[in-house]
Specification:
The chain is of the alpha/beta class. The protein contains 8 helices and 25 strands. The chain has 3 domains: 189 residues, FAD/NAD(P)-binding domain (3-Layer(bba) Sandwich), CATH 3.50.50; 133 residues, FAD/NAD(P)-binding domain, CATH 3.50.50; 89 residues, no CATH class. The strands form 6 sheets. Strands 1, 2, 3, 4, 5, 6 and 17 form a 7-stranded mixed β-sheet that branches.
Length: 422
């Protein structure tokens, strides 16, 4: 019988995840003077998903210049290394307790536990797989999530196929439409179930329109053909209830189907810790500091809600990093309890509650494409903020800056801030 005791160590701040969110949170904590920090990353390198995102468009907000994904990640990795912030790669976190004990394992240390003063969750997100989509047909070779295909092409030098259909118009799918075209493949169609694209407008222009790739809105794949290798797909238009219309079915021969059908925050650890999740974002419910309902456990980046720009991921991670330091130093002052509610046209807000009277940026997404609407923030009948927007779309993150005066007034008037479109 193996009776070897599990090694236990103490650390003021543990960051779970070494992607752009985890590194930015650790850097922010270090710049606030904290030195006892440890980043835990399950991959063999820091950088997360950005390592395979070789296209440009990153860093315009954060660094004031256009960078590729690896360049953006390297900026933060260089800061982590220059500051001497410790990190462990090839390390899997298997559990987090309510009293902030992190259980992890790797080949060098085996299983070990860390008693943390604060924990920042930055595990990122994963793609929705084919198994969740319920498409008729066999399971032949040639079906990939867009992110898997991106890794094959950009990091491993493999071409998944030559004749491609893409299901879903999320940003990774749009970017892979362009990438596969540049590598010599023929992208025959990008099919999107919804009547609008789920990606950024700039990606629709640069990745589809610039290469004459058709975007077929209100369309889906209804059947997969081929047993050993994909030979084609049947696509069809859908009605207002998203049900395929048989008379619109069309067969497209292809050897590759890429799925870009949404991203899911990687929250198994969060759920196991007993932290409540938002039903819309699938991320933790947090306050303005990005603190979850467990004291001293924070969440940021795509594990909290899926971002369209990594610059916003870093911005949010910095909020969590600074707040974790204040928590460790017992400098946090939770003086109010204001709930933030979305009206349905606005799908969700992050944060979902406010506990301090301090300027706070609230992120939100809308449920449909809207034109000439006002974004209104109100307490009951009293409007605290309004701004006219020519267009709002689900693929574009929106923000509202709340002042400390607005939050104090909301607390006095009943403690519920409603975000709505009128």
């Amino acid at each position: 019988m193996n009776t070897k005791a599990v090694k236990e160590i103490n650390c003021e701040l543990v960051v779970v995840g070494g992607g752009p969110a985890g590194m930015a949170a650790a850097v922010a904590a270090y710049e606030d003077g904290l030195r006892d920090i440890l980043i835990l990353e399950r991959d063999d390198n820091l950088g997360g998903i950005l390592r395979q995102c070789i296209h440009n468009g990153f860093g315009l907000h954060r660094f004031g210049e256009e960078l590729t994904g690896p360049e953006y990640a390297y900026r933060y990795e260089k800061m982590v290394r220059d500051y001497g912030i410790p990190f462990m790669t090839d390390t899997m976190v298997t559990g987090i307790s309510k009293d902030r004990v992190v259980t992890a394992q790797n080949t060098k240390e085996g299983i070990f536990k860390i008693r943390a003063g604060a924990v920042i969750l930055a595990m990122g997100c994963r793609e929705r797989p084919k198994g969740a989509l319920n498409i008729a047909g066999h399971r032949p070779a040639g079906i990939y999530t867009a992110g898997t295909a991106q890794k094959f092409v950009n990091m491993k030098g493999y071409m998944p196929g030559r004749e491609v259909v893409i299901l879903g118009s999320g940003d990774i799918g749009l970017i892979m439409a362009r990438r596969m075209t540049l590598e010599g493949a023929k992208v025959k169609a990008v099919c999107e179930l919804m009547p609008y694209s789920g990606g950024l407008a700039r990606n629709i222009e640069q990745c589809l329109k610039d290469f004459d790739i058709p975007l077929m809105l209100s369309h889906t794949v209804v059947e997969i053909h081929g047993k050993d290798r994909l030979t084609g797909v049947t696509i069809g238009k859908v009605d207002e209830n998203r049900r395929p219309i048989p008379e619109t079915f069309e067969y497209i021969p292809c050897d590759t189907l890429l799925l870009s059908c949404g991203l899911i925050p990687e929250n198994e650890l969060t759920k196991d810790a007993g932290i409540s999740l938002d039903r819309v974002t699938n991320g933790a419910i947090v306050d303005g500091d990005r603190e979850t309902e467990i004291e001293g456990v924070f969440a940021c980046g795509n594990v909290l809600h899926v971002h369209d720009l990594v610059d916003y991921v870093s911005e949010e991670a910095s909020i969590a990093g600074h707040a974790a330091v204040r928590f460790i130093r017992h400098e946090t002052s939770k003086t109010v309890n204001v709930q933030v509610k979305a009206d349905g046209q606005i799908r969700y807000t992050v944060p979902q509650k406010l506990t301090e009277v301090a300027p706070t940026r609230v992120y939100f997404r809308v449920a449909d494409v809207y034109r000439d609407k006002k974004v209104v923030v109100a307490v009951g009948d009293k409007v605290l903020y309004e701004k006219k927007k020519q267009k709002l779309a689900p693929g574009e993150m929106e923000t509202v800056e709340l002042t400390d005066k607005m939050i104090a007034e909301a607390a006095e008037l009943g403690g519920v801030l409603e975000f709505k479109l009128v």
